[in-house]
Amino acid sequence: MADLPRAGREYFTWPITSGPLPDGVELELFIAGGWHVAATASDRATVSLLLQGPMAPTDVPSAIVVPTDQDQITGRVVDSPEIVIRTAGYIRLTD
């Protein structure tokens, strides 16, 4: 479980446990009610998203506002013919 202050904004990173993502394949994470393409590191072994709490002082267009605790974050990779879906953790909002 990861903590995100309600008034904070920070990058969260997830490892690709099955090995580096193939070129041209993206990982999406389901957070705050929608799928978001995660930024892939140059080694393609980790991905990240900029998340912000609902009380962050300013809105940054590239940040995903997390309005409530995320009981489960789901990740998916579409690499035809497969659609691989895995649990990617949890986010808890803190004060």
The assigned CATH architecture is: Sandwich
Quote the average pLDDT: 93
Largest β-sheet summary: 5 strands, mixed
Order of helices and strands: EEEEEEEEE
Whole-number count of domains: 1
Strand line-up across the major sheet: 1-9-8-3-4
Task: Give the oligomer, counting copies of the same chain as homo and different chains as hetero.
Answer: single chain
**What proportion of the residues form beta strands (DSSP E)?**
over 45%
Based on CA atoms alone, the radius of gyration comes out at 13 Å
- Low-pLDDT stretches: none
| Net shape | elongated
CATH topology: Immunoglobulin-like
Number of strands: 9
CATH class: Mainly Beta
The CA-CA distance between the termini, in Å, is 16 Å
Helix content: under 10%
Q: Explain this structure to me?
A:
This protein has strands at residues 2-5, 9-15, 27-31, 34-37, 39-40, 46-52, 64-65, 70-79, 82-94. By secondary structure, it is mainly β. The protein has one domain: Sandwich (Immunoglobulin-like), CATH 2.60.40. A five-stranded mixed β-sheet has the order 1-9-8-3-4, with no helix packed on it. The protein is elongated. It starts with a strand and ends with a strand. The mean pLDDT is 93.
